[in-house]
Specification:
Oligomer: heterodimer
Mean pLDDT of chain A: 85
Number of helices of chain B: 12
Low-confidence stretches of chain A: none
Number of strands of chain A: 0
Distance between the termini of chain B: 25 Å
Radius of gyration of chain A: 28 Å
Number of domains of chain A: 2
Order of helices and strands of chain B: HHEEEHEEHEHHHHEHEHEEHH
Radius of gyration of chain B: 20 Å
CATH class of the largest domain in chain A: Mainly Alpha
CATH superfamily of the largest domain in chain A: MetI-like
CATH topology of the largest domain in chain A: MetI-like fold
Number of helices of chain A: 11
Largest interface: A-B, 22 and 31 residues
């Protein structure tokens, strides 16, 4: 139990006065402390600088998009896109469905292939020539401009089968794949070696160790990497232009007929000469930001559920 | 005890045995120790990492239900030798074992021997506690599960029995579903011991199991080792000579030899005998220098 002792009024320390006996522990001004203060100020300024564009982008999207997006909610999010773009008013419904189809399809293709490929590269490939070649090509692919992926898909898919959401999904999957492989391998590398050794020492086989120890330990990191790839792909416009088309009505079919996506609608409406279309572009931009935000939020909640109580 | 600190009168210089061993040395004669069945029989074992020979010339027998300690200075190959006993070198690219290591008469490194089968019988506790980032329950249940036990009642029983054996049950029974990473260092190491004995191995290898722990946690682990001796054969690597003297029946002293031609150090076995003999009347001068603190 703590007992409170009344402060002795004659005690220097209790009165908060200077220590008697000439011992001064107070900070003294010096170039070192000035330098410290200066560097902290510089870093704070850097943080503020980084925050400016972030806040500005969010603010302009909200300010210009909220009016049209939330007028007679939820009309804007459910109505079809006007065929004549100078017509004022909603909506972006088909584009939301299209984005979901294209991005979801790309995720379904790229994530299993990418994660399993990275597991093979890191756990079995090691430093073999084949593994190094694949790793090198994945790195090169990360740097390929997205429009090149669009052209590639146009050649191998759209020329034969026509516009469809699936073509867009293929193009986005090509973009996501190297990102998923790279981030997954990075996360596997971070799993401490003693964990593997502990599993081996219990008589676990290599595959068992990877499935039950290594992958779960790396999972939160892998999910973060996948989310980043999805978020990046969801906003891509260029690779979709050749593959998806520009529908104005709902098309829930992944494989047939032209579709659309939020990014495509933003591009189409924003480059239009009519203010009504430009307004719709801002609304669509807000919808895209909201969707990305919600997906990220759900994934965060999901990963924190995976973590154990201490 | 060597002496209680009540008197400041000068004491006679301690004998060699007293210098190291804090308790009375095991009075059992070496002959009695030899009566136990042999588990591991190592003959002229050499271990290579690539072209580098880390250990050479190790010939020793490890007997059932005894604690065998490997002592010696850093780099003398104690841990390397320990890891040859459950084929943990297999996971290190370039590592190779020469000579003969037999386990109950079977050549451990024969091509038809499966490393995972060996490790199910010869478990290992590591220097730093390495619990899985899972719950306490799942840490212990991991081994039984890979051996095909999935019935909940059976797993519950194994988990409780293992935790009780490792003297950890009372501390964790109310938070079995919590992360093992929330335990203290000493608790984590006892958890790792419980995890190892949950698969009912025959041998438990311990690689400096107390080097990351405080003296109280160390004492608990040592007590645990003495209890577990009746069920398992234990081989321990330790830097702490007092620990070797306190817990082991036999001690192997390793040291490094300098290969002047190639300027490389290779570990080798100097002397292997009953612990009481090693710490009271070692036959090799290098052992005597080491245990009396003149070297290493």
């Amino acid at each position: 139990m703590m007992t409170s002792v009344p402060l002795d009024p004659h005690d220097d320390l209790a009165r908060g006065g200077a220590l008697t006996g000439g011992l001064d522990l107070g900070a003294k001004p010096s170039w070192r402390t000035t330098k410290n203060a200066l560097m902290i100020a510089v870093m704070a300024a850097a943080v503020a600088l980084v925050a400016i564009p972030l806040v500005a982008v969010l603010w302009s999207v909200l300010a210009k998009g909220a009016g049209i997006a939330f007028h007679a909610f939820p009309d804007f999010f459910t109505s079809t896109i006007p065929v004549i773009s100078r017509k004022a008013g909603p909506g972006v419904g088909p584009a939301i469905v299209g984005t979901a189809l294209v991005t979801g399809g790309a995720t379904l293709i790229a994530v299993p292939v990418g994660v399993l490929g990275a597991v093979y590269l890191h756990e079995y490939g090691g430093t073999t020539t084949f593994a190094r070649l694949v790793r090198f090509m994945a790195t090169v692919m990360t740097g390929v401009p997205s429009i090149v992926m669009g052209l590639f898909v146009y050649l191998i898919w759209t020329m034969s089968f026509g516009y469809s959401a699936f073509g867009g999904a293929l193009a986005l999957a090509c973009l996501m794949l190297p990102v998923v492989i790279g981030s997954t391998e990075q996360m596997l590398r971070l799993v401490p070696a003693p964990l593997r050794e502990a599993a081996y020492a219990l008589g676990a086989t290599r595959s068992r160790t990877i499935l039950t120890i290594v992958l779960p330990a790396a999972l939160p990191g892998i999910i973060s990497g996948v989310l980043l790839a999805i978020a990046r792909a969801a906003g891509e416009t260029a690779p979709l232009m050749f593959a998806v088309g520009a529908a104005t009505a709902y098309n829930p079919d992944l494989f047939h007929e032209a579709n659309t996506a939020l990014s495509l609608q933003i591009f189409g409406n924003a480059t239009s000469a009519f203010p009504a279309a430009q307004d719709r572009a801002w609304g669509a931009a807000l919808a895209l930001v909201l969707i990305t935000f919600i997906v990220t939020l759900i994934a965060r909640v999901f990963t924190s559920r995976l973590a154990l109580k201490r | 005890m060597v002496g209680t600190a009540t008197s400041f009168a000068p004491k006679p210089p301690p004998s060699r045995g007293q210098l190291i061993a804090l308790g009375p040395l095991d009075p059992r004669p070496a002959a009695q120790l030899h009566a136990m069945p042999v588990v591991f029989d190592c003959e002229d074992v050499e271990v290579y990492y690539g072209a580098f020979r880390a250990v050479r010339g190790v010939t020793l027998r490890i007997h059932e239900h005894q604690i065998t300690a490997f002592i010696g200075p850093s780099g003398c190959g104690k841990t390397t030798m320990l890891r040859t006993l459950n084929r943990m070198h297999d996971v290190i690219p370039g590592a190779r074992v020469a000579g003969r290591v037999s386990y109950h008469g079977i050549d451990l490194y024969a091509p038809e021997v499966s490393a995972t089968e060996v490790r199910r019988r010869v478990g290992m506790v590591f220097q730093k506690p390495n619990p899985f980032p899972k719950s306490i329950y799942d840490n212990i249940a991991f081994g039984p599960r890979i051996n095909g036990i999935h019935a909940k009642a059976e797993l519950d029983a194994v988990v409780e029995k293992s935790l009780r054996s490792a003297a950890l049950w009372d501390e964790v029974k109310d938070r079995l579903k919590h992360s093992a990473l929330g335990l203290s260092g000493g608790q984590q190491q006892r958890l790792c011991i419980a995890r190892t004995i949950a698969v009912e191995p025959e041998v438990v290898l311990m690689d400096e199991p107390c080097s990351a722990l405080d003296p109280i946690a160390t004492a608990r682990i040592e007590e645990l080792m003495r209890e577990l001796k009746s069920r398992f054969t234990i081989v321990i690597v330790t830097h702490n000579m007092q620990q070797a003297a306190r817990v082991s029946d036999r001690t192997a002293f390793f040291t490094t030899e300098l290969d002047a031609k190639r300027d490389r150090r290779t570990g080798t076995l100097v002397e292997y005998d009953a612990t009481s003999k090693i710490f009271s009347a070692p036959s090799d001068e290098r052992t005597e220098n080491y245990i009396t603190g003149r070297f290493g």
